[in-house]
Amino acid sequence: MVLWGSSFIALKVAVTEMNPMVVVFIRMAIGAMAFAVVWPWLRQQFRYQSGDWKYLLGMALFEPCLYFIFEAQALKYTSAGQAGMVTAMLPLMVAIAAFFFLKESNSKRQWFGFMLAVVGVVIMTLTGEDSTQAPNAILGNVLEFLAMCSAVGYTLLVKHLVSRYPAFLLTALQSFVGTAFFLPFALFADWPESISLELMSVLIYLGLVISLGAYGLYNFSLTHLKASTAAGYTNLLPVFSLAFSVVLLDEHIVLAQWGAIVLVFAGVALTGERPRKTAEVPPAVTG
Fold first, then answer.
1. Residue 231 domain flag
2. 234 within domain boundaries
3. Mean pLDDT for the chain?
4. At CA 159, angle to CA 68 and CA 147, rounded to 5?
5. Which of 2, 25, 63, 77 could crosslink 186 through cysteines, CB 3.0-4.6 Å?
6. Rounded distance between C-alpha atoms, residue 166 and residue 200, angstroms
7. Tell me, what's the pLDDT at 217?
8. How many domains does the chain have?
9. What is the per-residue pLDDT for 281?
10. DSSP state, 51?
11. What pLDDT, on a 0 to 100 scale, did the predictor assign at position 10?
12. Does the keyword Cell membrane apply (predicted)?
């Protein structure tokens, strides 16, 4: 979540100089090239199981493909503040979906934590200074909700697949599919005449640290955590994003936001898994 929080700042810098679809394509391509270097090692751990193609393809289509399309379009029509409130619903959506599809159960303490974190995110969003215009907020919020639905599908499929395949192998497949998917969008988009050293550094950061690191760590966490528990940590995204904005963009945090940040951390703490009294060996990643 710390890495993903920093990605909002990096993405904000990148899209001011380059078409968003080009940024996403280059980001995916850099990640794919990095994974191509270590693919001979990753391929040795790939033991395909019959029928899994639909889960693997669905995972990559949900995220990064559909997620990034909906997210990029949503921010054209709604404000960042309203989009943030829709994003805060992700942990609850994952918890409900995991209950029906993965038979996961959560305690009353965890459900209360989900709600507390959502309240904190909403307060933090409403009390922040938002200069982004919302020409069609309803359309934008619907698109943001569809992005969250894609994130829910992605989380459930990764949770299903990490019992069969290594987490970083799944992350590599995401990069390969994402690169192929966004290539046509990039080809028909406007490219800048030149790319500054700062922009190139940001793109490399997004492609290596975020596409490999953030996604790889999140996928790995799903090897040992319930889907709802892992998704609960996404409520920390606006907190870390705000912290990076203060440090790097000289933004300010008002008193109400400090209180909201405390609520978010308290909520996330409640959604976490309590350690068992007897030590358990985490399940190994097969393949």
1. no
2. no
3. 84
4. 20
5. 25
6. 30
7. 94
8. 1
9. 39
10. T
11. 85
12. yes
Instruction: Give the amino acid at 258.
Output: W
Long-range contacts of 128-133 (CB under 8 A, 24+ apart): 128/81, 128/242, 128/254, 128/257, 129/251, 129/252, 130/79, 130/80, 130/81, 132/75, 132/79, 132/80, 132/81, 133/79
Q: Which of 123-132, 174-183, 258-267 has the lowest mean pLDDT?
A: 123-132
Helix, coil or strand: residue 103: coil
- Domain hosting 84: range is 2-98+132-226
Question: What 3-state DSSP class applies to 18?
Answer: coil
Q: How many CB atoms lie within 10 A of CB 237?
A: 21
- Predicted TM-score (pTM) of the model is 0.81
Dig out the tokens for 29 from the structure: 């391509």
The predicted-structure confidence for 52-89, as pLDDT tens digits, reads as follows 999 999 999 999 999 988 987 887 787 666 676 777 78
The rounded distance, in Å, linking the Cα atoms of 70 and 72 is: 6
- Reduced to 3 states (helix: H, G, I; strand: E, B; else coil), residue 45 is coil
Integer Rg of the chain from CA: 19
Place of tokens 């503040």: 81
Cα 250 to chain centroid distance, Å, stands at 25
Task: Look up residue 272 and give its DSSP letter.
Answer: S
Length of the chain: 287
